[in-house]
Design goal:
The chain is mainly beta and about 180 residues long. The protein has one domain. Helices cover about 10% and strands about 40% of the residues. The chain has an eight-stranded antiparallel β-barrel with strand order 2-3-4-5-6-7-8-10. A hairpin with a 6-residue loop joins strand 6 and strand 7. The chain is globular, with a radius of gyration of 17 Å. The termini are far apart.
Length: about 180
């Protein structure tokens, strides 16, 4: 895997890593606003136990996805979060460029408002799974097409219990401002 991770979605999705799975279009449908209608995040990439590359990003629920409204992660237009196993979520990242692939990560809650994001990595699966499910049409990355394939790789990545990827902190919806006294 590459040493650097793009700034929830470089951090959240850690999406430029080789070995990560991708699809030509989103696989998971029927997303819900599981984090509310507005989402403000502080994001960091994690390497060797340290947080790097801080950034902030805001997303708004558009009825189908969390669409990027401002801040970091210009390569990600939107994402959806889908309940998975053991309280985790699968993050499905929709790229800003139409020619780019949809990418996937696991979102694991560490504490209230604190999440670890781990790219779903084909290298976490065994050889038979990779041989059966990875299509590499013109790409060195593993291209999948079905929910079953996605879940097989997600289970393999979850079983590895990785501690590198991205750290995401949920921020209050509105910046907190100190109360000012009125002058008389």
């Amino acid at each position: 895997m590459k040493a650097s991770i793009r700034l929830l979605l470089a951090a959240l999705f850690a999406l430029t890593l080789s070995g990560c799975i991708e699809s030509s279009a989103p696989i998971l449908a029927d997303a819900e606003p599981v984090f509310g209608k507005h989402l403000r995040l502080a994001i960091y990439s994690l390497r060797k136990g340290f947080a790097h590359e801080p950034g902030k990003v805001t997303f708004n629920w558009n009825g189908a996805l969390y669409a990027r409204a401002s801040g970091a992660l210009r390569d990600v237009a939107a994402f959806s979060a889908h309940p998975f196993e053991n309280g985790d979520y699968i993050i499905q990242a929709v790229p800003a460029r139409r020619t780019a692939a949809t990418e996937y990560a696991l979102l694991h809650r560490l504490a209230e408002g604190v999440f670890l994001v781990i790219p779903i990595d084909e290298n976490d699966a065994d050889d038979p799974t990779r041989a059966a499910y990875c299509k590499t049409a013109g790409s060195s990355r593993c291209r999948i097409e079905t929910r079953a394939q996605l879940f097989a790789f997600a289970r393999a990545t979850a079983a590895r219990q990785k501690d590198e990827g991205g750290l995401v902190l949920r921020l209050p919806d509105a910046p907190e401002r100190p109360a000012h006294r009125k002058r008389r």
